Structure formats: C-alpha cells, structure tokens
C-alpha cells in the first residue's frame, strides 16, 4: 500500500505513481501527510467524466451530428461512427486524438455545440 512508502519519502521528494484508480486515489489522499511535495500520476485507464455537460458534436467533413452525453467523452461517441479515429492515452497528454485545437478524449464544448474537422 502506498501509505508506508509515502511516510518514508524524504522532505521535498517528488512522487511518481502509476496504477489503477483506487491506488492513485490513496496516494493523492495520503500525500499531504507525507514530506513529499510533488506528485506525478499516470493512470492505467482514463478517469471517468465527472461534472460534464452534454453537447452536440458536429463532424463537419462527415456531415454527421452526434450528441455527447454528460458522462461520456467526445472520443467515445465519435468512435461509434468513426472507429478508425486515432487515439492512445485517452487522458489528454499524448495528443494522438487532437483534431484542430481539440483533444477529443478530454476536451468538451465550451457551449452547447462543438464542430470538428472530421
Ligand atoms: S488520446 Fe491522448 S490526448 Fe487524447
């Protein structure tokens, strides 16, 4: 369990953790009780969408309009009609899914509608 490791961290240490969500949640919760000062996390799977708002997604080149529910990503919805769309990390750091200025694995529409060049 990460608790013991964090307690032995030297002052000012940077902690690097990768693993399943429950373990990472435990590290995040325990970090303030350690002497470590920085945390770098890599997840095995993308975190769930929390606090998302639904929006309409227009794939301009395909002529397709999709509804992205509050609890799903644009990438997940796009893959239903474009299974060939590129992606990798699904966490917003690799850039593989970028369409224009949008990382479709994590970015959401600022308003009710987002148009992509897909
Ligand atoms: S898949 Fe990696 S940033 Fe979107």
List the helices and strands and how they pair.
Blueprint: H1 2-7, E1 14-19, H2 21-30, E2 38-43, E3 55-59, E4 64-68, H3 74-81, E5 98-99, E6 102-103, E7 113-116
Parallel strand pairs: 1-2, 3-7
Antiparallel strand pairs: 3-4, 5-6
Bound molecules: FE2/S2 (inorganic) cluster.
Describe this structure as you would to a colleague:
- The chain has 118 residues and is an alpha/beta fold.
- The protein folds into two domains: 2-43, no CATH class; 55-116, Ubiquitin-like (UB roll) (Roll), CATH 3.10.20.
- It has helices spanning 2-7, 21-30, 74-81; strands at residues 14-19, 38-43, 55-59, 64-68, 98-99, 102-103, 113-116.
- The strands form three sheets. The protein has a three-stranded mixed β-sheet with strand order 4-3-7, covered by helices on one side. Strands 1-2 form a two-stranded parallel sheet. Strands 5-6 form a two-stranded antiparallel sheet.
- The chain is elongated.
- The mean pLDDT is 92.
- It binds FE2/S2 (inorganic) cluster.
- FE2/S2 (inorganic) cluster binds at residues 87-90, 92-97, 103, 105.
